[in-house]
Design the sequence.
């Protein structure tokens, strides 16, 4: 089997066990604790890649196949930091682990069968984490953010620039200068 460098592997399939990932422009560093994919059997969509008939995809439809597979995602949740494929069926997470063609590939989870009707979404280089969305936030103070995180909210959509009458009444951000002054 051909060996590739760690740098090439990460560029194609995302980070693996032991790799470190910086979160944006912060000093927060994640370390991948486990990789559920099987080296050499990773699934990936695209020209010359493995999600195709007779490789990482079964050749006939079945009731077991996923509706969507997110490949090689870096997952951060209460169980740890790991890389895996995520299978979606009927709009819900059906399984997390190694997806593919269990008839031909080693280590494929029974619940993560990729078939002809499975859509693929590249998760390489992306971080997937659970969290709620607050779609109506008035940004009145910076203290709202850690409070939201503590309750499971990871995404806030809204506006405002602090304890001003406009922010208290609406969720619109008044302008660049106001936003800069708030931060």
Sequence:
């Amino acid at each position: 089997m051909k060996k590739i460098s760690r740098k090439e592997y990460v560029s194609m399939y995302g980070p693996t066990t032991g790799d470190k990932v910086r979160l944006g422009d912060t000093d927060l560093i994640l370390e991948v604790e486990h990789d559920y994919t099987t080296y050499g059997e990773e699934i990936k969509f695209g020209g010359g890649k493995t999600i195709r008939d007779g490789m990482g995809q079964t050749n006939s439809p079945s009731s077991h196949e996923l509706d969507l597979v997110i490949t090689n995602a870096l997952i951060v949740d209460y169980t740890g930091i790991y890389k895996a494929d995520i299978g979606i069926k009927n709009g819900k997470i059906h399984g997390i682990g190694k997806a593919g063609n269990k008839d031909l590939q080693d280590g494929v989870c029974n619940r993560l069968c990729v078939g002809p009707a499975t859509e693929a979404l590249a998760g390489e280089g992306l971080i997937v984490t659970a969290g709620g969305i607050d779609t109506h936030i008035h940004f009145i103070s910076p203290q709202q953010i850690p409070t939201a995180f503590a309750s499971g909210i990871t995404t806030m959509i809204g506006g405002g620039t602090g304890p001003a009458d406009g922010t208290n009444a609406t969720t619109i951000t008044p302008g660049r200068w106001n936003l800069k002054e708030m931060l």
In short: Strands lie at 20-22, 29-31, 34-35, 68-77, 80-89, 92-97, 119-122, 127-129, 132-138, 153-159.
